[in-house]
Design a protein that fits this description.
This protein is α+β, with helices and mostly antiparallel strands. It has one domain: Double Stranded RNA Binding Domain (2-Layer Sandwich). Helices cover 27% and strands 28% of the residues. It is built from one helix and three strands; from the N terminus they run E-E-E-H. The chain has a three-stranded antiparallel sheet with strand order 1-2-3, with helices on one face. The longest helix is centred in the middle third of the chain and has 17 residues. The two termini are 20 Å apart. This is Type II toxin-antitoxin system HicB family antitoxin. InterPro entries: TTHA1013/TTHA0281-like. It comes from Desulforhabdus amnigena.
């Protein structure tokens, strides 16, 4: 299941810094924009999957 997020980013003296607009608590850095993007993806996966055991199942639901 893929999701689309908005990456907010800027350049410091040494690194690119960024966060996800939809999840501002997720923030990381990278030496390149590509590394920053990968680090944000990894940080998101770790946040949402941290307590989920192997063998989990997925089902789409609608929340109104």
């Amino acid at each position: 299941m893929s999701k689309r997020f908005t990456m907010i980013y800027w350049k410091s003296e040494k690194f690119w810094l960024g966060k996800l607009l939809e999840h501002p608590e997720i923030m990381t850095q990278g030496e390149t924009l590509e590394e920053l993007e990968e680090n944000l993806k990894d940080a998101y996966r770790m946040m949402v999957m941290e307590d989920v055991p192997d063998g989990y199942q997925i089902k789409d639901i609608i929340v109104v």
